[in-house]
Amino acid sequence: MNYIQTLAEADALEARAQELRATAQATKQISASKDKTLRGWLGLQFESSSGLTEEFANFARDYKKFLSRLEGFELVRFLRGHFYISAFLKNTATGKLAYISSSDVRYFRDEW
Fold first, then answer.
1. Residue 110 belongs to a domain
2. Which domain holds residue 8?
3. N or C: more exposed end of the chain, with fewer CB within 10 A?
């Protein structure tokens, strides 16, 4: 095998590795959406974009569902921002409000 053939093979292997990484990421995202505890989203590297990605839209939807199921709290307001979320929760026993917000999920992995 000569130098050019070796480079071509290396390029093909790198392209295949990128395809496999993308498939693994998509598979993790699908399984994360089925996890009612949000643990499935841990460790996910969110795709960066200047607009809303399907991945972040799914995460925000799941996060909203998670918050709305918290026992003893009522979800008063939920905002999906540009790769961050914020919400107001009302304690049903005391009537007090709590505000939560996340960092940018693209750069602060698992800090949501």
1. yes
2. 1-34
3. N
> Does a structural domain hold residue 39?
no
List all residues 6 or more positions away from 58 whose beta carbon is below 8 Å from its beta carbon.
Answer: 29, 32, 33
User: What confidence tens digit (pLDDT) does each residue in 53-90 have?
Assistant: 999 999 999 999 999 999 999 999 999 999 999 999 99
- Give the count of domains, the chain: 2
In a domain, 44, yes or no: no
The dihedral over CA atoms of 90, 92, 93, 96, expressed in degrees to the nearest 10, equals 20
Looking at the fold, whether 60 and 83 belong to one and the same domain comes out as: yes
Three-state secondary structure string covering 96-111: CEEEEECCCCCCCCCC
Q: pLDDT digit string (tens) for 23-37?
A: 666 665 555 555 667
Please tell me the predicted confidence (pLDDT) of residue 30: 54
User: How many C-beta atoms surround the C-beta of residue 104 within 10 A?
Assistant: 14
